[in-house]
Amino acid sequence: MQWRHAKRTGGLLLIPLMVLPLWGFIGRGSASSSASGSVAETARMHEARASHTSTLLPNGKVLIAGGFGGSGTESHPYPTTELYDPQSQSFELAGNMTIGRSGHTAILLKSGKVLIVGGWTGRYEARRAAELYDPATNSFTPTGNMVIERAGNTATLLADGRVLLAGGVDRNENALASAELYDPATGSFSLTGAMADPRGAHTATALKNGRVLIAGGGSGRYPSQTVYRSAELFDPATGKFTAAGQMNIARHKHAAVLLASGKVLIVGGSDNRDWHGEYSSAELYDPATGTFSATGSMSTSRFKLPQAVVLLKNGKVLISGGGSFAEVYDEATGNFTKVEGSLGAARLFASTTLLSNGKALITGGYSVSGNGLPSTAAAWIYQP
Q1: Are 65 and 364 in contact (CB under 8 A)?
Q2: How far, in Å, CA of 141 to CA of 148, rounded?
């Protein structure tokens, strides 16, 4: 089940009267087709990457960290990082992490530093080690170790500045029910309450009320893995998880994002058949009622897109992973609309970051080709 295993007219006076309305029609058609925005390729990264992270820094640049090069190289994650500068529209090499990582998490702390934690550092090597990136010095330094090694876990910034690390898998790909908290004040990790179900490839979304919604995921290995419909809520005040109802369908390797309304949009993923069970469906979680309800479906089925879905400044949602094109969700209509432009191929485990100027940066991901499952160094800019 784990992400790192990539399987696979008339008179003269009449002419203007007829042409002008036609021009008006054409203009409206063009505006309608581009109303969802467009995607265009920008400068390439220095490394081809998938299962990397991308984090918007306070200075407006984006930190791209780790990942791997594709099929056969997942056992050699990169320690390399680079910075995307929206002003120059280019990537520049940055300092190296203390170890190579893929399937890790990166969270911007209130201090402006970035916490990098967990992930795979080699084949069957999930790590406890964590480190901090300081934009002021462009360097990484070790911080405390997690209590339990984990990869493919979630990391969520809480209102008080701590970070919740939940689930994931260990080096033997056993799903974990445990969770822990990172305290930036002490640089240490401590266990907190455990989830009811062990989960990998799930989602964690911080709600406006301060709680965290954990949804879906699964345990076990393909093809006998178990994928969950269940959801749980973590309460920072008590350190405990409680049941939060059931999604409409069981999902893992999906994505979730908090909407402006306070609801959570959950998109895509797959059932326990992975490549043969991808979803185009989506649903909404309403914290006010504690229930899930169906919403419109995407234009294509997608999975392996946990970091490729972002809330835009206009309140719409950009979905740019798991498919060869991007699309936008409008909560007001419940509809998904294709974005102009192509990503060339379905980009799995790509990463998308909302920029300070309202545009979005899409980077990397791996794709299916005749030569295996290569990652790409390509990057794209989404223009609303």
Answers
A1: no
A2: 20
pLDDT tens per residue across span 41-82: 999 999 999 999 999 999 999 999 999 998 777 778 999 999
pLDDT at 18: 35
Residues 6+ apart with CB under 8 A from 303: 253, 254, 268, 269, 270, 274, 278, 279, 322, 348
The values of phi and psi at residue 127, to 5°, are -120, 155
pTM metric for this prediction: 0.91
Please name each of the domains of the chain with its CATH number.
37-383 (2.120.10.80)
| CB-based contact 341:322 (threshold 8 Å) | no
In the structure encoding, which two tokens stand for residue 124, read together?
């069957």
Q: Which residue has the tokens 């409008």?
A: 330
Measured CA to CA in angstroms, residue 315 lies from 189, 231, 258, 259, 384 at distances of: 34, 25, 10, 7, 11
Cα separation values, 159 from 110, 111, 207, 356, Å = 10, 13, 10, 21
Which helix (H) or strand (E) element contains residue 19?
A: helix 14-33
Query: What are residue 28's phi and psi, to 5 degrees?
Result: -65, -35
- Yes or no: say if 338 and 299 are a contact pair by the CB < 8 Å rule: yes
**Res 88 pLDDT > 80:** yes
b/e per residue 279-288 (b: at least 16 CB within 10 A): bebbbbbebe
- pLDDT at position 31 over 90: no
Check if the beta carbon of residue 1 is closer than 8 Å to that of residue 252.
Answer: yes
Which tokens is 95 given? 């300092």
Q: Please report, for residues 4, 54, 75, 240, 241, the alpha-carbon distance to residue 121 in angstroms, rounded to integers and kept in the order given.
A: 11, 18, 7, 30, 29
Residues 238-269: pLDDT tens digits? 999 999 999 999 999 999 999 999 999 999 99
Report the distance separating Cα 249 and Cα 216, nearest Å.
9
Residues 351/307, Cβ–Cβ less than 8 Å: yes
108 phi/psi in degrees, rounded to 5:
-75, 120
Mean pLDDT of 272-279: 94
